[in-house]
Amino acid sequence: MTKHLIKLKVNGEPYEVAVPPNKLLLDVLREDLGFTGSKRGCDDSSCGCCAVLIDGAPMLACVALASSYQDCEITTVEGLGTLDGLHPVQSGFADGGGSQCGFCTSGFLISTKALLDRNPQPSLDEIREALSSNLCRCTGYMQIYESVKLAIERAAARKAANPAGARS
Amino acid sequence: MSMPAFRLERPRSVAGAVSILAAHGPDAMILAGGTDVVPNLQMKLFSPRVLVDIKSLAKVCRLSAIEWSPGNGLRIGALSTLTAVCESLLIQEKFPVLARAVATIAGPLQRNMGTLGGNLCLETRCHWYNQSEFWRKSLGGCLKLQVSDALAGKEGPVCHVAPGGRRCWAAWSGDAAPALLTLDAEIEIAGPAGLRRVALAQFYRNDGMDRIALGRDELLTAVRVPPRMAGRRGNYRKLRVRNSIDYPLAGVAVSMDVDPRGVCRDARLALTAVNPAPLLVKEVGEWLIGQTASPELIERVAQQAIRTAKPLTTSGSTPVYRRDMVRVFTRRALEEAWRETAGAPV
Fold first, then answer.
1. In the predicted model, is pLDDT for residue A38 greater than 80?
2. Which string of DSSP letters, residue by residue, matches B309-340?
3. Of A1, A59, A67, Cβ closest to residue B112
4. Residue of A nearest to B38 (CA)
5. Which of A55, B31, B194, B301 has its CA 20 to 30 A from that of B250?
6. Taking a C-beta distance cutoff of 8 angstroms, is the pair B279, B270 a contact?
7. What pTM was estimated for this model as a whole?
8. Closest to A133 (Cβ–Cβ): which among B1, B10, B108?
9. How confident is the model over B155-183, as pLDDT tens digits?
10. Does ipTM top 0.90?
11. Cβ within 8 Å, pair B113-A1
């Protein structure tokens, strides 16, 4: 199949990559651009492991054609924080036991980030609803909900300490 | 799984999309949110030569707008995401049955991608069809998915749900359509001759293989609900294995107009996932008009709903259970709608 040059903006950086029209965003992120944080789980849009933010909304990269999302801001789990400066969502999951085998974790982090961006103080029901597209076979979800609560506290503390410059 | 090869078109106008569709006929397929089409492509359920990605049209021609006016009613652009529909305060307030039904579709990630138009044009589903290519070939295909004669055997492809029959029973598995049927919705369809409007109830053929009355050169552009349906109480009840992500195994939508004394002025009931089409339950509207809630009346309506439901073994759940849940859900949805209107706590 003929490849076409497409432009993607991932984690704030512009990329140009030659891909065939049937290439999925997940595969372009993982194979062409090296963002292997997004995982291929079910491969049919029902597990949430491949979640990325597209213009701020969490979506499934495994059912998205890369060529369709050229004009969008894409954020993968790699775009959330750095090793020295974890995003509150990342440190919440790390310390709250929200990750065991880790395969689903990047999807949960993306869904949680999107939730807290929209609603910094969600109720437990709102957390459960926002994470209801993400499947985890290890934790039983309780540690994940606790991790999200930890992330909420840490994000609030960070915002209180630095009201102007806090990254969401 | 892997994707089949195709050419991707990203038209800039509705007319452009229609002309691409017209030029390629059965070789072209429309792609919107992708949550139904892409997994089906990966399973090789179909292999279009040209995929027409209409997401590029979201910002043109009000294709993703949700608008209301007292004169014209509600108009929802077909590319509105399911999230936009179920989170719309306007829809929650004026057409609660629609907001509630759409909020049950898959999960939040899928609703951020999937569109209302896509949910209304969903492919029908069957246990024997929505399987990998290897699985289907091992079975020798089915009516809906024909395989080569050699694989199918002497008798040709058979329906594994109703062997001997020539009808495909793959189940209609959308949640938005039953809600919109109870609201007397119309849809706008763009084609080579321009726009046409058709009642949603006329859109579905009740045939698992040929599910919707949409020409190969046509595009669903909007959904309209008449203003007289605004303010009706409504409920949607859905049977599924998990409380998220899953398609419905049965679903019941109810819309009611009830006066302050609790007398029903008008009511509609529709079912999903228990036939190859979403279907209005006939006659119950007349039975309910002028009546107040009573267990006998509600049970009679629930029995009529069961007569409309013809679930077969198209899913992992049994037809007996799905039919019985139609009765239970009808009763609960009606009772709740009645209580809400009477101003009592739900």
1. yes
2. ----SSSSS-HHHHHHHHHHHHHHHHHHHHHH
3. A59
4. A63
5. B31
6. yes
7. 0.95
8. B108
9. 667 888 988 888 999 999 999 999 999 99
10. yes
11. no
